[in-house]
Design goal:
Layout lengths: L17 H4 L4 E8 L4 E4 L5 H26 L9 E5 L2 E7 L4 E7 L5 H21 L10
Antiparallel strand pairs: 1-2, 1-5, 3-4, 4-5
């Protein structure tokens, strides 16, 4: 018997975005899984937009790793930061743990250094919370 594929259930990580959304010129932020799912999003980001951001960010992160690996001829290339500049503003993305990234969209007037610094702080905070959380009972037999 085939059982339907289930999407993993994750804790909503929107709490990590609040300090970033308080920064001047930051419009939206999201925590995105490597497989293209939203794990947390800013309140003003519609579900449809969030799903689009998650899918594209997942693809972009993969492309970033692939192009870095191609340029360096190293298969284990790891991204530290991805930045996209457009007329509408900036998109910043940084790894936020295993198979997760933190993404921020900001107006063109944003101080890029301030945003990047605060993103690193929030990734550290997220890591500490996840590492200090008690393991969940999965209902399995001991």
């Amino acid at each position: 018997m085939n059982s339907p594929t289930r999407r993993r259930v994750t804790e909503d990580k929107s709490w990590v975005l609040a300090p970033l959304l308080e920064l001047p010129h930051v419009v939206h932020a999201a925590v995105i899984s490597g497989d293209g799912f939203i794990e947390g999003a800013s309140p003003g980001l519609s579900r449809e937009a969030g799903e689009g951001v998650a899918a594209m960010m997942s693809a972009l992160q993969g492309a970033g790793r692939a192009v870095t690996a191609a340029f360096t001829e190293k298969d284990d290339a790891r991204l530290r930061q991805t930045v996209i500049e457009s007329e509408e503003g900036f998109v910043f993305a940084i790894p936020a743990g295993e198979n997760t990234c933190l993404a921020v969209f900001a107006d063109p007037e944003v101080n890029m250094g301030v945003v990047a610094h605060h993103m690193q702080i929030q990734v550290t905070t997220l890591g500490k919370k996840v590492m200090n959380s008690p393991a969940r009972d999965t209902g399995g037999l001991a």
